[in-house]
Amino acid sequence: MVDDDPTVSNVVSAYLTKAGYDARVVADGVAAVEVWQQWKPSVVVLDVMLPGLSGLEVLRRVWGWDFGDSSTVTVHVRRLREKIEADPSDPRLVLTVPRTG
Fold first, then answer.
1. What are the structural domains of the chain?
2. 77, exposed or middle or buried, with CB in 10 Å at 0-12, 13-18, 19+?
3. Which residue, 29, 36, 43, is CA-closest to 62?
4. Where would a tag sit more exposed on the chain, N or C end, judged by fewer CB atoms within 10 A?
5. How many CB atoms lie within 10 A of CB 14?
6. Are 58 and 2 spatial neighbours (Cβ–Cβ below 8 Å)?
7. Torsion angle defined by CA atoms of residues 59, 64, 70 and 71, in that order, rounded to the nearest 10 degrees
8. What is the structure's pLDDT at 101?
9. Which residue has the higher pLDDT, 61 or 84?
10. pLDDT for residue 85 is more than 80
11. Mean pLDDT computed over 51-72
């Protein structure tokens, strides 16, 4: 669980623990990359708006890593509309999708 909001991370990690997962919580993108590198989780719940590295930058850094069995990543953004309206030029709010074909 990667989220800088302790309320969100506590609720989600409690749910994951109850579901039988070994839930670990980090609050920023740099820590997420470090933990991901050492631990190789099977499920990651990743906030997009994080201090340090954004959730999208975290994904860019781990994209080519070998995880053996596949990892599932769920990306979430709380209050996205308010964040875009507050600063529409914030580069962390821009999703870059690679072109295919």
1. 6-93 (3.40.50.2300)
2. middle
3. 36
4. C
5. 12
6. yes
7. -20
8. 44
9. 61
10. no
11. 77
Neighbours of 70 (CB within 10 A): 7
Cβ atoms of 23 and 93 within 8 Å: the answer is: no
Count Cβ neighbours within 10 Å for each residue of 82-93 and write b for 16 or more, e otherwise.
ebeeeeeeeebb
Average pLDDT over residues 29-34: 94
- What amino acid occupies position 4? D
DSSP states of 39-100: H--SEEEEESS-SSS-HHHHHHHHTT---SSPPEEEEE-TTHHHHHHH-TT-GGGPPP----
Answer whether 25's CB lies under 8 Å from 39's CB. Answer: no
Which residue is listed with tokens 């906030």? 47
